[in-house]
Amino acid sequence: MSMKPIVAIDGPAAAGKGTLARRLAATLHLPYLDTGLLYRAVGRRVLETGGDPSDAVSAESAARALEPADLDRNDLRGPQADAAAASVASITGVRAALLDFQRDFAVRDGAVLDGRDIGTVIFPNAPAKLFVTASLAERARRRWLELRAKGMEADIATVEADMRQRDAKDAARAAAPLKAAADACLLDTSEMDAEAAFQAALAFIRTRIDLI
Ligand code: C5P
After folding, report:
1. Which of 154, 132, 133 has the alpha carbon at shortest distance from 143?
2. By residue range, what is the domain housing residue 108?
3. In the structure, which protein residues have their CB atom closer than 6 angstroms to any atom of ligand 1?
4. Segment 51-105, tens digit of pLDDT
5. pLDDT for res 3
6. What is the number of structural domains in the chain?
7. What is the CATH number of the domain that holds 102?
């Protein structure tokens, strides 16, 4: 078992991982890392040089050049960034280049990290792992509401179709596919609001980590 309080949160797109992870981190006084931003930032770097995010050479060199400030870019959301992230994320060299960044982030104080392979690959010894999911229709509805709140025009059927495709790509890839770790607590938030999901997650974490 890891000595650091590491909370690994994995799951498909728009399952509520980010909201949950951020609140858990604040409550547990742990640093928080949204690992999806790493893949999004790599995808953006490739796109801005006119490259193809599915090209292994361009994507890996973008991943090696990644700097922490890239995570603060304001163009990491939206359909184009989603697709570019999923493309670079299926490249083994990209994942290898981002591995140390993720491990180093948690090395000193522990952390809450959310992503697709935190409990399976990045921190297989994390004491607390959650796999957060929800039905495709509900996740698409949440993402659609998010996009609308940001003033982005979106058609819910297109959002659902894009999400289905991205989840399938994440789950089918050979490199660190999206899947629940054998020892993860499964949290289906289809019928839960954010508060219920938070309470359920915290109750589980308390069974795994000694909290103050
Ligand atoms: O979590 P988010 O939707 O921001 O992730 C964007 C994409 O980055 C995912 O669809 C997935 O392809 C990739 N990703 C990943 N591993 C992670 C986090 C994200 O492959 N740990």
Report:
1. 154
2. 6-204
3. 13, 35-36, 39-40, 85-86, 89, 115-118, 166, 170
4. 999 999 999 999 999 999 999 999 999 889 999 999 999 999 999 999 999 999 9
5. 58
6. 1
7. 3.40.50.300
